[in-house]
Amino acid sequence: MSLNDHPMKFAHLLRYVTPHRGTLALILLLLLAGGAISLANPWIAGQLTAIILDSAQGRFSLTFILLAWSGLLLFRAVIGFANQYLIGVTGESMSAELRNRVYEHLQVLPLGYYQDRKPGDLLSLLANDSEIISGFVTGTLVQLLPQLFVFAGAFLMMALIDIQLALLAAILLPAYFVAMKVIGRRIRPITGRWIDAWSSMYAFAQENVALIPAIKAFGREPAERARFREHNRAVLGHSRQQIRLQALLSPSVSFLSGIGMLLLLWLGLQHVEQGRIDAAELVSLLLYAMLLAQPLSGLANVYGQVMLTRGAADRLLDFFSVQPEPVSIGQPPLVAGDGRIEYQNVSFAYPGRSPVLEDFSLVIQPGETIALTGPNGAGKTTLVHLLLRFMEPRGGRILINGQDIAEVDITSLRSQVGLVAQHTLLFNGTVRENICYGCPDATDAEMKKAAFAAQAHGFIDELPDGYETVIGDQGVKLSGGQRQRVSLARTLLRQPAILVFDEATSMLDPFGESDLVSQCKEIFRLKTVILITHRPGTLELADRIIQLDPLPQRQA
């Protein structure tokens, strides 16, 4: 989808410019001042030429002009420093704000969005596309107007000196724009392929780093190195194509500019011989022609940058157009109650797939522990995700304490449903930070009570720094069973009315499972509990076992 047919406009991204409009206006004024000095240079050079060729002129005039010119050059240097500083700071600020906006949107997207995309694609939005947009605004868009100002000013000064030579320069302009169009239109698709290849390489590397133990265990290091080289080769290939076209664009414009300069020089010398202009005016005119060519070379780079930016803008606009989870503004909180759950004729299907649930109904009484069992694809985890509103049912409704969960505040809903998942999700921080993640204001006594209940205090106390031990990325420094106990402690600390265990004992050995099951009998006593498990030891905890079977496969 291109920006031309995108339901959102490119101006949507430019709203991030608004907070910086004052600074950008100052940058623009400084650039225009620098452009005015550039326009003065050819005139001064012409005056110096006249003084040198006319021996009657006094030495004072030459000295005065040189001093004045030096002052202008110094002023331009100061302007250049201020511009570079302001452009750099503003660009980084815009990048940071856009990254914040991307990350905030990532946080509110439904779970299904992540399941359909590679992490590298999402991280590319933060690392690459945000930088491209801010770089375009500060490095290209803001500088475009001063370049056009210099271009128009140079053409006007040429016309004042010799209108015929100025018109000749104007006639040559279409050739420059044709070159930019022909080469520039090929840059954009290559840039898009480069971004895709880079994202794939990043996602591959991220996955492989997480799977290093498996790679080493199966002796697959050579194969994985070869696969990475293939990804890297694809990135390099697209980069070279992009660089080749970018490298061709500016020299092509410069070559055409050089041909135009030679033609102007040849005709200008004839005009000097004819007495229509003098040598000093010819020098000024040629220097103005060079100023005319400089913005053209800049415009060539601008065109390439526009193609690059359009690709980044397309991806960002597609990303921002994804609808977030249902908002809960103004919706009442889920009233604390006894934990009665009711699924009423619930139907659900993943996009493009056959239904997982169809007219499913189930009532879980307050304080009841039920176990959901059945083969993969039967809908066990889907029922849990619907309960937490990670997804919305296609039909039917779900009630907790008699309230339709679609009509309550989603944050209050999730605060009363505690999930302990099969794949433990821990952060690279201390044990304390992970247990208190959902309750950052919990006291030490409350935290340790939850750890005791999850039978985690024993091994935590033996860690080098106890609860202050850093457990590494995704808890890599802990065993699988230890990670699950920390995850359970984190959930219990929130004291939810409803507990959901999704294969939560899968990483425990039989002895660990037996100990935890014994402890859980006390934990479950006053809570409504959903167990997703196939393990006999855990099934013993259930008051009722619900067998789920996959629906017959058919076209969704």
UniProtKB/TrEMBL annotation:
Domain ABC transporter: 341-556
One Pfam family cited in the UniProt record for this chain: ABC_membrane
Gene3D superfamilies hit by this protein: ABC transporter type 1, transmembrane domain (1.20.1560.10), P-loop containing nucleotide triphosphate hydrolases (3.40.50.300)
GO cellular component labels: plasma membrane
Superkingdom of origin: Bacteria
Keyword field: ATP-binding, Cell membrane, Membrane, Nucleotide-binding, Transmembrane, Transmembrane helix, Transport
Segments forming domain ABC transmembrane type-1: 25-308
GO molecular function terms noted in the UniProt entry: ABC-type oligopeptide transporter activity; ATP binding; ATP hydrolysis activity
UniProt topology in membrane: Multi-pass membrane protein
Localization: Cell membrane
InterPro entries on file: AAA+_ATPase, ABC1_TM_dom, ABC1_TM_sf, ABC_transporter-like_ATP-bd, ABC_transporter-like_CS, P-loop_NTPase, Type_1_exporter
Transmembrane segments: 64-86, 163-183, 247-267, 279-300
Record-given protein name: ABC transporter ATP-binding protein
Species: Elongatibacter sediminis
